[in-house]
Amino acid sequence: MDRRPGRGRVKFIVLVMMILAGAAGPAFGVTTFPIKRGGPEDLNRVIAVGDIMLAGSAVPVLKINGISYPFRSSGLAKLISTSDAAFANLEYPITMRQDRFMDKTYLFKGLPQTLAAIKEAGFTLVSLANNHIMDYGSQGLMDTIEQCDRIGLAHAGAGADDASAGKPAVFVRRGVRYGLLAYSLTFPPEFWAKKDRAGTYHPHYTQIQNDIQKARPGADILMVSFHWGEELSSTPKPYQEALAHLAVDAGADMVIGHHPHVAQAIEIYQGKPIFYSLGNFVFGSYSTKVDTGFMAELAYRGLRLQEVNLYPLIVCNHTTLFQPKLAEGPVARKIIKNLYRISKKYNTGIMLTNNCGKVVIPVQ
């Protein structure tokens, strides 16, 4: 009997070997090896999620189930709480103010208890640079900053003027300094900070380059966050690519995008990960147009990137009721395969490993 493996199996083995060697270019592999999480002294792990907005349609559910309810999903809770640093986009002001921005359809605000729940879940760094943080004016923004400072939640991307909005946030754990710069490229322009006006940090090319170069000496791992792109579009716009590459060329260790509410491509550029959009994490809306997303985990040994893991999420609030879930089985495979599909143009290799994705990091 001929016991040689069939050609399909040989191709699969070769493909996996090429992926592991970083030589396969754009590839999607499937393996049963689990993602191995090291001990507390092994790797420094950074978690990044997209939009968090614990207001709007989520309020009645939070009143019934408790403010911390969105973060109780066991698998996700452990990943976030055991990370060394965890990032999210805070997509609403924390304020009791009633004066709101009138020329806008959707306005949100949340209670201080919701911010405390975000911190208690394990999040350590948040971007305030988005198109909702000024929904209740400059005082609503300043209330948010005051609450972040009060509970020790590092923040960047908005402030009393453009100088303060542009300051990097730094969070330190186990001797590693995690820095964050955050920018908003979304409207309305009335939300953008100026020399004499509070608001979000709206950049230009030279400014981004200068900001990163100034922040670089004060951070061991520097994150750059952009609120950008087109809502509900899975395709990054050319300006997103240009700004992401500019940020990495200037010294960023990773680029984290959000605003489209859906996932966009992943790119490894100059050995640094770019997440053009992570999609929603928990967002107070019952929109039927947003049902999945993903959470990224970056593992560093020292300051060298070792792993980029992708955890597929179910975020359809009709079924999850504002508690994101880790996807499993066919749903997880579908989400990871879609990430591979939309990332192919960037030659991004992704492997499926026990309901999770592992991005191939090319050998430098």
List the helices and strands and how they pair.
Layout: H1 7-20, E1 28-31, E2 44-53, H2 59-65, H3 74-81, E3 85-90, H4 112-121, E4 125-127, H5 137-151, E5 154-156, E6 158-159, H6 162-165, E7 169-173, E8 176-184, E9 199-200, H7 205-215, E10 221-227, H8 238-250, E11 254-258, E12 266-269, E13 272-275, E14 280-283, E15 292-301, E16 304-314, H9 317-320, E17 325-326, H10 329-343, E18 350-353, E19 356-359
Parallel strand pairs: 1-18, 2-3, 2-14, 3-4, 4-5, 8-10, 10-11, 11-13
Antiparallel strand pairs: 2-15, 6-9, 7-8, 12-13, 15-16, 16-17, 16-19, 18-19
Helix pairs in contact: 4-5, 7-8
Brief write-up:
By secondary structure, this protein is α/β, with parallel strands linked by helices.
Can you tell me the CATH architecture? Answer: 4-Layer Sandwich
Q: What name goes with the CATH superfamily?
A: Metallo-dependent phosphatases
Describe the sheet with the most strands.
11 strands, mixed
Q: Return the domain count.
A: 1
Helix content: 25-40%
Radius of gyration: 20 Å
Span from first to last CA? 44 Å
Let me know the number of strands. 19
Question: What would you note in describing this structure?
Answer:
- This protein is of the alpha/beta class.
- The protein has a single domain (7-359), classed as Purple Acid Phosphatase, chain A, domain 2, CATH 3.60.21.10.
- It contains ten helices and 19 strands.
- The chain has helices spanning 7-20, 59-65, 74-81, 112-121, 137-151, 162-165, 205-215, 238-250, 317-320, 329-343; strands spanning 28-31, 44-53, 85-90, 125-127, 154-156, 158-159, 169-173, 176-184, 199-200, 221-227, 254-258, 266-269, 272-275, 280-283, 292-301, 304-314, 325-326, 350-353, 356-359.
- Strands 1, 2, 3, 4, 5, 14, 15, 16, 17, 18 and 19 form an eleven-stranded mixed beta sheet that branches. Strands 7-8-10-11-13-12 form a six-stranded mixed beta sheet.
- Helix 4 (112-121) crosses helix 5 and helix 7 (205-215) runs parallel beside helix 8.
